[in-house]
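Entry
Fold in token form

___
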Amino acid sequence: MKVKTILVSQPQPATEKSPYQRLIDKHKVKIDFRPFIHVEGMTAKEVRQQKVDFAQFDNIILTSRNAVDHYFRLTEEMRYKVPDTTKYFCQSEAVAYYLQKYVLYRKRKIYVGERKIEDLAQVFQKFNKERFLLPSSDILKPSIPEALDKIGIDWTRAQLYKTVVSDLSDLRDVSYDVLVFFSPSGIESLFKNFPDFKQNDTRIAVFGNSTVNAADQAKLRIDIKAPSPETPSMTMAIEKYIAEVNGK
């Protein structure tokens, strides 16, 4: 069956020059965007119940822009003035750049990894007598604590925000040829919103091993999978599939 409509379970790209727009223009398909999950901040009370005292940590490990936002939101709500001497360890350049929203970049001690926590291992070792705080969601990739434990630093996790299933009830009577997922939480949201979901002719596209596993556990048939050596991005995988089934 030809692909005419696609629903991507993420927010719409901010730029019109996204790879999805290229798909729309080239293959004349309709692509909608709708986050299946969203982030909600935890309250100061919920953080206090974790017995987290921001004043005990001079070093902050930041793995995402959400972590940055909610760390500074809660320090303000809890009336804790973050010292200028605080050191920030950012998993990537994108996170470090986003940190400028809250601190004067050139006047702070900021250490940047290329993409993974392990990239900062040597820097962490320089401060291995100090304590580190890891602001996180309620969902944390196991690879992050495993890496920090292996490096051997004294670190504490603080859950400052959580991933919540979005209300998709308005989509109940809407059908798409392809549903695109990027996380196990997206698969979970599908079935929480539509417990009686039957795949039938709907094609399922998944990105990443954890999403593949979640789709398998949900007994979904996976028709499009990324990344792969041939199709490292989701849009490339979708385009390859469209070319096969639409005959272009």
Summary: The chain has two domains: 5-36+168-246, 40-163. Residues 65-77 form the longest helix (13 residues). The CA atoms of residues 48 and 225 lie 42 Å apart. The domain at 40-163 is CATH 3.40.50.10090 (Rossmann fold).
